[in-house]
Amino acid sequence: MSTTITVIPGDGIGPDIVEATLKVLDKAGCDFNYEFADAGLTALEKHGELVPEETLKLIEKNKVALKGPLTTPIGEGFTSINVSLRKTFNLYANVRPVLSLKGTRARYDNVDIITIRENTQGMYSGAGQKVSEDGTTAEAMSIITREGAERICTFAYELARKEGRKKVTAVHKANIMKSTSGLFLKVAREVAARYPDIESEEMIVDATCMKLVMDPSQFDVIVTTNLFGDILSDLCAGLIGGLGLAPGANIGQDAAIFEAVHGSAPDIAGQDLANPTALILAAVQMLEYLGMADKASQIRDAVRDTIAAGDSVTRDLGGSAGTVAFTDAILARL
């Protein structure tokens, strides 16, 4: 029986890389049905709102969505679309794997890290934001709950155990942010005690950044709060060649959204220049989530071999191929 997924093409290069990704899924014989939905600037122009109710209903119905990059207009009155989707569907776990690929121009060739970020709380959630009437003072709130911290830490250890990972690093700033980061660290220690088969360590966020840059091979699974996770996962993407190679999954109890985490790059939209790797690898995450590990491995291997060959890669990977030629090279390997 075919699985139906919600597909959000997004803005800018979104439709280009979504089209490429669906071709790859079809070629691999995934047998999905696709229901398309609008969000972002495209939706604002068509429907007068960034996330139409129909889009939310489709995600709720199908439980799984594949999403291209979205643009939130800059200015007052517009809330981040991604933050809104995470809150609406309680997508509490953000999973960002990075893996060194032969043929990239990355500084390292030994990176294999999964960053697991709490996705709904903390400073990044946007709670309590206000600016004084005279514009001289701004405030925002960071709220961490025991339930949220335990849920994300447990998720990290369960994923580590499932994937045969050896170590989980809890990243915090409890030395200064003694209430919020302190609670997160306290709960992380409690959860770690329940997984004696996995090595546990804790690390202050600034030290983590330094050590990632110096020697990323010492990290395996990182679990942390929302804002720190946003920063660290982008840093990790830089270790393997950039956001064009880094997928992301937003996972909750009842729904999951898989995405390319990079921007919409409107300056190259529709010009056959975009690298679809991040979204294709997000689709690999989606397949693993759906229990289709064999298809996931086939696609990951085809992407890896295409980049390693180097004769049909996009400009950001040092080649001259366009989106279509790069995708065709992956399809040929499938």
From TrEMBL:
<feature type="domain" description="Isopropylmalate dehydrogenase-like">
    <location>
        <begin position="4"/>
        <end position="330"/>
    </location>
</feature>
<dbReference type="Pfam" id="PF00180">
    <property type="entry name" value="Iso_dh"/>
</dbReference>
<dbReference type="GO" id="GO:0004449">
    <property type="term" value="F:isocitrate dehydrogenase (NAD+) activity"/>
</dbReference>
<protein>
    <submittedName>
        <fullName>Isocitrate dehydrogenase (NAD+)</fullName>
    </submittedName>
</protein>
<dbReference type="GO" id="GO:0000287">
    <property type="term" value="F:magnesium ion binding"/>
</dbReference>
<keyword id="KW-0560">Oxidoreductase</keyword>
<dbReference type="GO" id="GO:0006102">
    <property type="term" value="P:isocitrate metabolic process"/>
</dbReference>
<dbReference type="GO" id="GO:0051287">
    <property type="term" value="F:NAD binding"/>
</dbReference>
<dbReference type="InterPro" id="IPR024084">
    <property type="entry name" value="IsoPropMal-DH-like_dom"/>
</dbReference>
<dbReference type="GO" id="GO:0006099">
    <property type="term" value="P:tricarboxylic acid cycle"/>
</dbReference>
<dbReference type="InterPro" id="IPR019818">
    <property type="entry name" value="IsoCit/isopropylmalate_DH_CS"/>
</dbReference>
<comment type="similarity">
    <text>Belongs to the isocitrate and isopropylmalate dehydrogenases family.</text>
</comment>
